[in-house]
Amino acid sequence: MPEDMPALREELGYASVDQPDLVVKARASTQTPTVDEAVELTAETEGLPIDAAEITWDVNGTTHEGPAVETSFADAGAHPVTVEASGPNGTQATDAIEIQVQANQPPEAAVSIDAEQLQAGETVAIRAEASTDPDGDELTYEWRVDDEPVDAGPVLETKLRAGPHIVAVTVTDGYAEDTAERTFAVDDRFRHQANLSLTDSSTQFPVSVADGLAEAEITLTHSTTQGADTVNLTLQDDDGAAIANVVTDPEPGSDEARAQLVLDGGQLAAEPHTLIVELDQGSETMATIEGVFTYSPLPSTPG
What we know:
Elements: H1 5-11, E1 23-28, E2 39-46, E3 54-59, E4 62-65, E5 68-71, E6 77-86, E7 92-101, E8 112-113, E9 123-127, E10 140-145, E11 148-150, E12 155-159, E13 163-172, E14 177-186, E15 194-197, E16 207-210, E17 213-222, E18 230-236, E19 242-248, E20 257-264, E21 272-281, E22 284-294
Antiparallel strand pairs: 1-2, 2-5, 3-4, 3-6, 6-7, 8-9, 9-12, 10-11, 10-13, 13-14, 15-17, 16-17, 17-20, 18-19, 18-21, 21-22
């Protein structure tokens, strides 16, 4: 051995000719990722500090350098990964691991509705919290109500008008998606029942005489106006022609609205009439209630 060899080895960081062999180990944050899931690869060395070694990776035929790299795999199946460590004195070491990439399992969407009976104008909670993902991936939610997009998370809270509705939620895990749909009806009869209140509590309207003019008074009380902006009261004859109409705005915060028609006796005949009540919210009619009655003047004594 040349006389200057020990000094050279000491200069390169080796104090003894009996320097241990260089060993490198490949580690992965997971060896069973799903397709496109990020995997962190790290190298560990023995016999030489990691920062004194040159580390090279071969991942699917692509070369990476450095003690730590992040990669992903686009295809399911087995993928070999090789790491090589090179020392300053020409020593080398290699290690290999196999990454078993799992195909992504799609999520399963589920949708449910809190209320057993849905009422027009009431807030209803529609839930997709029971949606699941077999891989444990985080889910995002896209809602459509009657084919119109609505922005919400796992719980959608909304008010709906009376009638049939279709609610659909699409959940995605970033790789695949699934859609669940629910069809249901919103009823206007439980919350929107009109009480036709006649002044004599019968099917006859009283007639009063003032200055020779006979008048009949019709009063409608709508006892629950939740969600309604206006109460529209219309009186029709048997041909469907409107005799009179009045629109009443409920008092703010009130659960009762009263609409009143005052008619002279010439507007009412003995044939049946139809009283139509519309509960309106904005430009939409939430509920329509009809009642049929026959006008029979009561005897009155001129004052």
